[in-house]
Amino acid sequence: MCAQIKKEAPGLLWSVFRGRCPRCRRGHLFTDPNPYHLKNTVTMPHECAVCGQKFELETGFYFGTGYVSYAFTVLITGLSFVLWKLTLGISLDDNSIFWWLGANAVLLVLLQPVLQRLSRSAWIAFFVGYNPDTIQQE
Known about the structure:
- Helix content is 45%, strand content 0%.
- The protein has 3 helices and no strands.
- Helix 1 crosses helix 3 (96-127) and helix 2 (65-87) runs antiparallel to helix 3 (96-127).
- The longest helix has 32 residues, at 96-127.
């Protein structure tokens, strides 16, 4: 009798950050792997190529990603403030707070395509659970 090897499920956070299907955690959520191809940043197939999960659960489903994106933006802003304060310092006397504001604005603009994808991935993962039975046997 052969021993069966049980494959572990890919982690939820790892699949969210990698832009994978929340149901099988193997299929790709986005058609173009590069988020900086701006014409295709959030272009998604209609369903997962691995398990068949529909990615547009209902009309306007991804409108809620604005809230997730806002939370990520606040998190990044807070982290950049703490990092700036610990390394360069913040003071109103030398206008360093304005330099931080400018640097933070540039950082957020540069990260916007990544944040859009991350928000969509986290949003759908919140509503669609992992189901290992949907994965085709390899």
